[in-house]
Amino acid sequence: MTWRSRFKSRSGVQREDDLVVGSYLLIHGVQEEDYGEYQCSISNTWFQVLEVQVRLLRAVEFLEEPMQQRLYKQDFLLLSGVLLFLVALFALYLRFGLQLRVIWKDACGYKETNDGKEYDVLVCYNDADCDFVLGVIVPTLETRYNYRCCSHHVSPNSLGKTCEYPWL
Fold first, then answer.
1. Rounded to a whole number, what is the distance in angstroms from the first to the last CA of the chain?
2. Number of helical (H) and strand (E) elements in the chain, helices listed first
3. Tens digit of pLDDT for each residue in 42-88?
4. CB-based contacts of 99: which residues, under 8 Å, 6+ apart?
5. What region holds the Ig-like domain (predicted)?
6. Phi/psi at 21 (nearest 5 deg)?
């Protein structure tokens, strides 16, 4: 067993009455030229060879930051994450809050069947919105959400006149 390098070489050592053969490489007072690759070659009488590469590297100094500074960073990251979550939750509430409340009310709320009112919803519209209101909004409220709707056409020229549609 031998160790080889560009600069050093060390042969094997025998122990226990020559029954165990081993090797080691020990470099005292490591110098700049000692850094690099080393190769350990092991062979036996059956012509089997095993080679192992070893690299000796310079130690890099690890500068540990103070514990208090690390805790401040962790607190800052946690606070930033919570704040970002709350802002996202608020934005989702602004965008979908009304829809979610209506869905929650329809799914879990108490539905009064006989509350003394003739209609659940009053929809007022003008000439420009007549087709949209009577063709989309009123049928959707009545079929999808089971609301009883009353529609009222409001116009600056004619107050109280309504469009005639068969579902009204």
1. 102
2. 3, 8
3. 777 677 787 888 888 888 777 766 666 677 888 899 999 999 999 99
4. none
5. 1-44
6. -110, 130
- Cβ count near 3 (within 10 Å): 19
Select from 114, 119, 116, 113 the least CA-distant residue to 149. Answer: 119
Cα distance between residue 24 and residue 13, in whole Å: 8
DSSP annotation of 34: G
Cα separation, 105 vs 99, in Å, equals: 10
**Mean pLDDT across 14-43:** 73
Q: Which phi and psi (to 5°) does residue 156 adopt? A: -65, -30
CA distances from 67 to 63, 73, 78 (A): 12, 10, 17
CB neighbours of residue 4 within 10 Å: 15
Let me know: does 2 contact 12? Beta carbons within 8 Å.
Answer: yes
